[in-house]
Write a structure and sequence with these properties.
The protein is α/β, with parallel strands linked by helices. The strands form 2 sheets. Strands 1-6-4-5-2 form a 5-stranded mixed sheet. Helix 1 crosses helix 2.
């Protein structure tokens, strides 16, 4: 159930799914719609500790695209049900899913995303 909306810094949003489909993400980045920054389509749960858990696959894709594009904040819809934190259960290790169809530009943007997420304590399956 969707409740109220809140403008949230992308720094305070926390992924809960342990994988990123990179080709899909690049489509979200390429087709970014500025309305997503204000329409509340990113669904989050308020943990009450100045962090907000992302709640569904679409919200994750929009969040990752916002990070790639350097968006400082997005308007989100707060929901009442806490999502399963599958990423935390995997020790905050993100699995990157991709084929060989990524361009050099894609790889640069993905590396930027990885750097941002590393600073927030996440690790990737291609790292020790």
């Amino acid at each position: 159930m969707v409740g109220r909306e809140k403008e949230v810094s992308t720094r305070l949003l926390r992924p809960t799914l342990p994988h990123i489909h990179l080709e899909q993400l690049m489509v979200w980045v390429e087709r970014w719609d500025p309305i997503w920054e204000i329409d509340g389509s990113i669904k989050i749960f308020d943990e009450g500790i100045a962090q907000f858990m992302l709640c569904d696959p679409e919200s994750h894709m929009k969040y990752y695209a916002a990070v790639v594009l350097g968006k400082a904040s997005v308007r989100c819809s707060l929901i009442n049900e806490e999502p399963d934190d599958l990423l935390d259960a995997q020790a905050n290790r993100i699995h990157l899913i991709y084929s060989n169809q990524l361009t050099d530009k894609d790889l640069t943007q993905i590396e930027h995303l990885k750097q941002v997420l590393r600073k927030r304590g996440y690790r990737f399956d291609d790292e020790q």
